[in-house]
Amino acid sequence: MRTDLPRKAAYLLVCVALLVVAAGASVSVGAHTIAPAEIWRAFADHTGADDHVIIRDIRVPRTVLGICVGAALGASGTLIQTLTRNPLAEPGILGVTAGAGFAITVGGALHLADAQSAQLALAFAGAVLAALLVYSVGRTSPLRLVLAGVALSSVLAGVSLGIRLMLPDVFDGFRFWSIGSLAGREQTSLAVPLSLIVLALIGAMAVTRPLNALVLGEQVAHVLGGRVARTRAAVLVLVTLLAAVATAVAGPIAFVGLMVPHLARRPAGGSVPWLMAYTMLLGPILLLVSDIGARVLLTTGEVPVAVVTAFLGGPVLIWAVRRHGAAAL
Amino acid sequence: MNDLVLRAGRFSVRIERRTTVVSLVLVAVALLLAVFGLCYGASWTTPSDALSALAGHGDSAFVVREWRAPRVAAALVFGASLGLAGAIFQNITRNPLGSPDVIGLDAGAYTGALISITVLGGTAVQLAVGSILGGLLTAAAVYFLSLGSGLSGLRLIVIGIAMNAILTAVNSWIVLRAELEIAMAATGWSSGSLNGVEWAGVRLPFLVIGVLTLLLVTLSHAMHQSALGDELAVTSGVALDRLRLLLVLAGVGCTATVTAVAGPIVFIALAAPQIGRRLARAGGVPPASAALTGAVLLLAADLIAQLLLAPVALPVGVVTTAIGGCYLIWLLVKEVRRP
Predict the structure, then answer these.
(1) Mean pLDDT of the region A175-193
(2) Chain A contact for B207, CB < 8 A?
(3) B315: Cβ–Cβ under 8 A, 6 or more apart, which residues?
(4) Which parts of chain B have pLDDT scores under 70?
(5) Residue A57's closest CA among B272, B106, A65, B294?
(6) End-to-end CA distance of chain B
(7) Nearest CA to B157 among A151, A312, A85?
(8) Residue pair A305/B176 in contact by the 8 Å Cβ criterion
(9) Which of A80, A167, B242, B264 could lock B106 by a disulfide, CB 3.0 to 4.6 Å apart?
(10) Where are the transmembrane segments (chain A) (predicted)?
(11) Contact between chains at A158 and B322 (C-beta distance less than 8 A)
């Protein structure tokens, strides 16, 4: 284990470097591409020029949002895949994000979701309920868990669509929200949700050690002195918190939590703490790259980033089923 | 036994009593719903008026014959077509979840239809061809990606779900790319809707579905044989590969034709065969009861969609999604309980 420490650290550094490049590109590329030198000047020597305002008020907040949401989705994917030992588990596929979205739509219809704190609480409650339901229905096999999640997601999506068609003002409010995207989200106040995400990420890092013991099996974890029930409960709370807050700020974005752990698993070599560290870097990289794609794919406007992640994530799911799914059958 | 056997020369058909009774009941329910559908609209027409209007008499003749009748007919025929497609795919995959909408064929047919609208201009024929090609390509892709585990099993279905996600993303990308008018039309259509169906739009689809149904009638005997197991089917003289290919072609045709006209209406193909099977208490997935159940389900769903928020008519796909998803969860709960 010790001998491959330099290799793991090197991979971590590569991820950090990639994240810096992706963040830089995310600030500079867009409908109006801005030279990297100008980005520096916007902060060091702010003149109030249009480019500087775009960078400071739109591009940088959007990039920060992308980093936090990407890390949150990736971390929740890693936690749930590790806990359930199911390589197909993902908050988006398991209906957790759909539950959060449904709760926010219902809250909007009942005029409960006006304040941001209420919206976050609703998203969390919806995510918890959906997670419990899906887990109780589909716990017997990995593929069945996916099916239960897909089924619940489609019920909730159908009912949400019905509600939104019934109430035009709710429709208007959730037209943009209902498709996951980072565009326009930087305009709302992000202090509370982003600090929640950061706290939850610290918590996720903290549970990796007990989780590492749990991966070896419940009995081993007991022998090693881990408190299995407490670890499991903490992981489930963190998974739903991360997925719910990310969904509340960016809308439902599927597949990021599925893809990232698969990219991180091989270099992590079975160590959950390293897996989590890579995930928290690869998640933002993936989301920022998808978001840049979302901006440049169409000349007329933007594609929601969730469309890009679904397009990238579908093949990953097929690959994962072909690789891991056969054993479960 | 109570079964009836009809003989004509060297052909004989055995008709199970329960299947016959169930079929007759389903036809009666469908007729009752159809009469209700003819009566219901912006204004209520009494059943006797509606029936005489159907024959061309009375003030409401135009409304009933040109607006309500095509919608009711479309719901019945499309529902039956989706039920048939579901029965075919559930027979081939030997899985109650292996229906064309779950494994992405609807989304693929919709992609084909969208491409033919945005690139070619979208006449009725182009739409039909585009969506059938889209459905076939998707079926081929899902089949080849899930090779190695055979055609059955949950793996095929999860691969289909992934395919569905990719194609849904492609579809929304196409809609976002398109000009506003096309995008608006496509969005209304994307949830599956019978709003604004006219006779002119359904003649060709009805013809296609009729031909496919005839093809299935000729194949049904072989399909029953193959449901008993591959080896038994081969020894009893069924050319399995050719049979499967024909069945997949017919099933894709049935789904894609409906998608071309009404957009992707999900879950009828999933639920109808299973409900029909339980009603008829049959062993396999009998196509006839699947078709009748599908017709009743889609017509009922369309009436609910019209009644729920009257005077606004919801897309019927919204209703089938909500009801069908609950059904899917129930199916999974039941399977979890099974030891």
Answers:
(1) 72
(2) no
(3) B188, B191, B192, B193, B195, B263, B305
(4) 1-15, 148-153, 185, 187-188, 227-234, 237-238, 283, 335-339
(5) A65
(6) 34
(7) A151
(8) no
(9) B264
(10) 93-113, 120-138, 144-167, 188-207, 233-260, 272-297, 303-321
(11) yes
Count how many domains chain B has.
Answer: 1
Distances (CA, A) of A301 to A56, A61, A304: 21, 20, 10
C-beta atoms of A154 and B266 within 8 A: yes
The range of the structural domain enclosing residue B181 comes to 3-337
Q: What CATH code is carried by the domain that includes residue B201?
A: 1.10.3470.10
Domains of chain A: 4-324 (1.10.3470.10)
Q: Residue A310: its chain B contacts at CB < 8 A?
A: 165-166, 168-169
A195 within 8 A of A249, measured Cβ to Cβ: no
The answer to ipTM > 0.90 is no
**Residues A254 and B165: beta-carbon distance below 8 Å:** yes
User: Distance (Å) from the C-alpha of residue A138 to the closest C-alpha of chain B?
Assistant: 7
Alpha-carbon torsion (A141, A147, A151, A152), positive or negative: positive
Which residue of A154, A304, A315 is in closest CB contact with B166?
A: A315
B309 to chain A: closest CA residue = A166
- Interchain pair B155, A326: CB under 8 A: yes
CA B327 to chain centre: 16
From B211's Cα to the closest Cα of chain A, the distance in A is 33
Contacts of B170 in chain A (CB under 8 A): 311
What is the residue type of A311?
A: F
Q: What is the pLDDT of residue A286?
A: 92
Kindly give, in sequence order, each residue whose CB lies less than 8 Å from that of residue A271, ignoring residues fewer than 6 positions away: A1, A8, A212
pLDDT, tens digit, 9 for 90 and up, residues A227-258: 777 888 888 889 888 988 888 888 888 888 88
Residue B284: count other Cβ atoms within 10 Å of its Cβ.
16
| Contact yes or no for B289/B104 (Cβ under 8 A) | no
